[in-house]
Amino acid sequence: MDDSTPHATTPAIRPRAVAGRVPGWARVALAMFAVGWGANQFAAMLLVYRDEDGASSQVVTALFGAYALGLIPALLIVAPISDRIGRRRVVRPVLVLSTLATVVLIIAGDSFGLLLLGRLAAGVASGAAFAPGTAWVKELSADRPTGTGARRAALALSAGFGSGPLVAGICAQWLPAPTVLPYVPHLVLMAFVIAIAWHAPEPFVPRSSDEPRRRSEVREALLSRPFLMGVLLTAPWVFGAASTSFATLPTFVDIGVAPIAVTGALAGLTLWTGVAIQPLGRRLGDPRRIITTGLAAAVAGLATGLVLDLTGAAWLVLPSAMLLGAAYGLVLVGGLTAVEALARPDDLGTLNAVFYSLTYVGFAAPLLNTLALTHVSPETLMLVGIAVIAATVPLVLAARPSRPR
């Protein structure tokens, strides 16, 4: 009887002991990585549902973008709550919800209603995780230079977004049950992440008890020139550039070999380029310079897409995807750095939520592109995008550099 206690408690202790060796910020970043994986694994499944189930392009792209309908309200509702009650109490149930969203997608089959429910649940999980998670990583990176927390969060998010479709695309292309097995890796990942991140440390951050004053400070930050001209105008290009790369560009050419895997790999290439380019943000420093460099990459990516359509040279999809991925990564880290500089400790989650909400407007790009291409040529579509971005650059440069508050 005496030696039964150690045997009973050892399995419960070991995960905590292993997790304790991982830095706190990395445990939270891993949670963001896993939720991002679950959110974007669907990108590789667009061709699967179109080819296997006969869904139209409009229906498939609508399902892809529908998750923003769950994400944006969750961002705006949950982030202020996390500013008041803390990050861990919000993120824990989100990890469970992300897992359940994938389970729904697995059992959905060709049911539009269940697919929509799964995508909406993934959106709610993402919205409830990303802004509080970003603020949490920043708080656990307080001993590092300014901007470190934003870069770490952006890196984790981008890596998850890139890995999900890459793995799902490979599974869907070459394994049986293409509407089931591609989702299984996310379930395995979530089991591991929940064990690691569940007890991540939460530093004490003083919270203002003066709610009217806090709201006034948030409003002041949102109406500031750096936010209006440097963040508001450019944030939609974060996912606008990325989703155009892997959901619109492949429609310009005929992908004859392993199209599902290629689509997933293209999403992975786009988003992992966004990961690789983010250290450049640290060297550029000023959020305005980071964002404008990202916008320049977006212009180059759309211009390459224009040449792709005119020439039919399928290989051009690769440099175009990399350029649009660079745009995604730089505008994301530039926007998060600007928000971190504008926010006070007890409104960082709220401001991050507003920023992420603006970025996810870009997830409507594939659907809007699909609808636009029924009326205009791909060349016209690319030229309009280039013109809009070019008109934005002078406004970003005119914004005053943001200062820590």
TrEMBL record:
Q: How does the record classify its membrane topology?
A: Multi-pass membrane protein
Q: What is its main location?
A: membrane
Question: Which residue windows are transmembrane per the record?
Answer: 24-49, 55-78, 90-108, 114-132, 153-175, 181-201, 222-243, 255-277, 289-308, 314-336, 348-368, 380-399
Compartment list: Cell membrane
Q: Which domain of life is it from?
A: Bacteria
Q: Write down any Gene Ontology CC term.
A: plasma membrane
The protein's matches in InterPro entries, at most eight in alphabetical order, are given as: MFS, MFS_dom, MFS_trans_sf, MFS_Transporters
Q: Name one GO molecular function term.
A: transmembrane transporter activity
The record's Gene3D superfamilies line, in alphabetical order, gives: MFS general substrate transporter like domains (1.20.1250.20)
Domain spans labelled Major facilitator superfamily (MFS) profile? 24-403
Recite the UniProt keywords alphabetically: Cell membrane, Membrane, Transmembrane, Transmembrane helix, Transport
| PANTHER family in UniProt | MAJOR FACILITATOR SUPERFAMILY MFS_1, RESISTANCE PROTEIN MDTM, PUTATIVE-RELATED-RELATED
Q: What is this protein called?
A: MFS transporter
Source organism per entry reads: Aeromicrobium yanjiei
